[in-house]
């Protein structure tokens, strides 16, 4: 049996696991009179019917747009394009994804930078920074270090192009 962190469960199930758990608990208390198997089936059926209430389509679209643009997107423009106020969008995104939209976008940019570094190990870090929407090399390095616990220059690639280590050398 595998145990998933919330973010991993979200990426696999495409659902907020905490909200699913809470809804399952509420639904379970409604049908405790039924047998265990039929109660479980009833919970699953009810959860399936209510998925749109758990993940609004605007949030799904926001995730898609942030990932498609590799995190290089104005969160305010995104919210406006989805017909939501900045505050409402931020609260909904945080509730569903578990992190603010700006943080999610920065994570996407850092992951894109990591991909560029692994695919093009000789590419100057300043070029990686500009390609991924960072203001400069130091901005990329700060964010990379914050999320990856190392700097872009310390990412090691084996001779066959496989990422070997993200652990910073002491």
Give a short account of the largest sheet: 2 strands, antiparallel
For the largest sheet, list the strands in their spatial order. 1-2
How would you describe the shape?
Answer: globular
Elements, N to C (H/E):
HHHHHHHHHHEE
Q: Terminal Cα separation, in Å? A: 36 Å
Q: How many β strands by DSSP? A: 2
Number of helices: 10
Q: What percent of residues are in strands?
A: under 5%
Average residue pLDDT: 77
- Radius of gyration equals 20 Å
> Structural class of the helices, strands and pairings?
mainly alpha
- Percent helix range: 55-70%
Pick out the low-confidence regions: 30-34
How would you classify the quaternary structure? single chain
How would you sum up this structure, described in words?
There is one protein chain. This protein is an all-alpha fold and 170 residues long. It has helices at residues 6-13, 17-30, 36-49, 51-54, 57-68, 75-81, 86-97, 101-119, 125-131, 137-148, and strands spanning 156-157, 163-165. The protein is 64% helix and 3% strand. A two-stranded antiparallel ribbon has the order 1-2. A hairpin with a 5-residue loop joins β1 (156-157) and β2. The protein is globular.
């Amino acid at each position: 049996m595998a145990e998933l962190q919330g973010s991993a469960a979200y990426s696999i199930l495409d659902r907020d696991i905490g909200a699913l758990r809470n809804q399952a608990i509420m639904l379970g208390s409604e049908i405790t009179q039924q047998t265990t198997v039929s109660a479980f089936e009833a919970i699953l059926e009810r959860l399936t019917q209510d998925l749109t209430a758990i993940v609004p389509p605007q949030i799904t679209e926001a995730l898609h747009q942030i990932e498609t643009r590799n995190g290089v997107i104005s969160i305010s423009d995104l919210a406006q394009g989805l017909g939501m106020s900045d505050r409402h969008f931020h609260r909904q995104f945080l509730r569903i994804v578990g992190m603010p939209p700006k943080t999610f976008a920065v994570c996407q940019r850092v992951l894109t930078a990591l991909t560029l570094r692994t695919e093009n190990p000789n590419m100057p870090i300043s070029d990686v920074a500009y390609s991924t929407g960072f203001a400069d090399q130091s901005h990329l390095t700060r964010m990379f270090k914050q999320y990856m616990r190392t700097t872009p220059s310390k990412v090691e690639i084996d001779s066959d192009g496989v990422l070997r280590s993200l652990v910073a050398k002491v």
